[in-house]
Amino acid sequence: MAEILAAGEAMERALALLEGGDVVAIPTETVYGLAADATNGVGVARIFEAKGRPRFNPLIAHVADLAMAERIALFDPLSKRLSQTFWPGPLTLVLPQRPGNGIHPLVTAGLDTIALRVPKGFGGELIARLGRPLAAPSANSSGKISATTAEAVAADLGAKIKLVVDGGATSVGLESTIVKIEGGKLRLLRPGGIAAEEIEAAAGMTLLRGAAGIEAPGMLASHYAPGAAVRVNAAKVARGEALLAFGPRRAEGWQGAAALRNLSATGDLREAATNLFAHMQDLDRSGAKTIAVEPIPFDGLGEAINDRLSRAAAPRDKID
Ligand code: TXA
Ligand code: MG
Fold first, then answer.
1. Ligand 1 atom at minimal distance to the Cα of residue 218
2. What is the tens place of the pLDDT at every residue in 146-186?
3. C-alpha–C-alpha distance, residues 11 and 18, integer Å
4. Is 88 in the pocket of ligand 1 (CB under 6 A)?
5. Among 30, 103, 112, 138, which is best to mutate for testing ligand 1, by the most ligand atoms less than 8 A from CB?
6. Which of 92, 169, 230, 287 is most buried as measured by Cβ atoms within 10 A of its Cβ?
């Protein structure tokens, strides 16, 4: 079973594992990541093995700062401005790779672009100490809900990895927002922890929506799936369903719910994002066959929350 070490005590052990081509689960501000040295093919392969993830999914390379990012990718003025505004933080930029950057091709699934971000906290310090980027998808088995606590990581992947670094519950609770620069325009590949409106304000332009093809497989329909079926936009709750609530007013029939969690009693979307995955896991554990979800507004972080919920509700034949 994986050892769980507090972030304040885990640095040397994490470095030793990464230097040896092994994986380590680390906290970031968004969700926990399953990290390996992005220049080490064996380490990166272990990520896919532990997650049971198909190899065609490219991973995000996490860097310590803009200087490290510029050694890996080619920045235009707009992407530089966005990185200066939002890094460290939950923004991932997809950029052309700099030839000879040393990134193992398994990280990018052979694409000539690479997804980059600078995480806050322990992850950022770890990368600076290692001196090399870390490839890190969310630390969960493929198709499952992302983990926002060290305990959730250990429960899911503990038998397959050696170390989980415990940084407490993540502050954002949702994966990063992914944008791609396309000929001076910006495309939103995955809504996430920074609201699209904030990026639009910083960029001074509207984001293009809808990916060209399956570019960000975070976009595969049934991702983030709990064991129970998920029913979104529920105006009524059937007896025995679990209820994922939002805001001060309850859906009709809520008294008959088998279990209830409220994403935010005050209707605060940021608080709701932080609670999303942990509450889904709690309701899943209640044993109810269906989780009914009250309507959640689409503004701000609501876009990303609704995106994750609609994937959780999608038919399960498409799990990646
Ligand atoms: O918050 C996050 O982003 C977390 C933490 C650990 O940093 N990481 C995360 O990674 O969510 P992952 O691997 O679960 O999701 C990465 C997404 C995938 O949907 C992948 O397809 C997309 O990024 N992606 C990676 N490289 C890409 C590329 N070159 N072009 C387009 N999409 C890419
Ligand atoms: Mg994921």
1. 19
2. 999 999 999 999 999 999 999 999 999 999 999 999 888 99
3. 11
4. no
5. 138
6. 92
Using the mean position of ligand 1's atoms as its centre, give its distance from the Cα of residue 216 in Å: 7
Q: State how far the Cα of 302 lies from the Cα of 153, in Å rounded to an integer.
A: 25
Could you tell me the distance, in angstroms and rounded to a whole number, from the CA of residue 105 to the centre of ligand 2? 19
286-314 pLDDT, tens per residue? 999 999 999 999 988 899 889 889 888 87
Q: What fold, for 3-219?
A: DHBP synthase (3.90.870)
In a mutational test of the pocket of ligand 1, which residue from 32, 120, 175 has the highest number of ligand atoms less than 8 Å from its CB?
175
Tell which atom from ligand 1 comes closest to the C-alpha of 30: 1
pTM exceeding 0.70? yes
- The single residue listed with the structure tokens 């059937």 is 238
Q: Is the CB of 312 under 6 A from ligand 1?
A: no
Q: Ligand 1 within 6 A of 177 CB?
A: no
Could you give the residue range(s) of every CATH 3.90.870.10 domain in the chain? 3-219
- Three-state helix/strand/coil letters over 248-267: CCCCECHHHCCEEEECCCCC
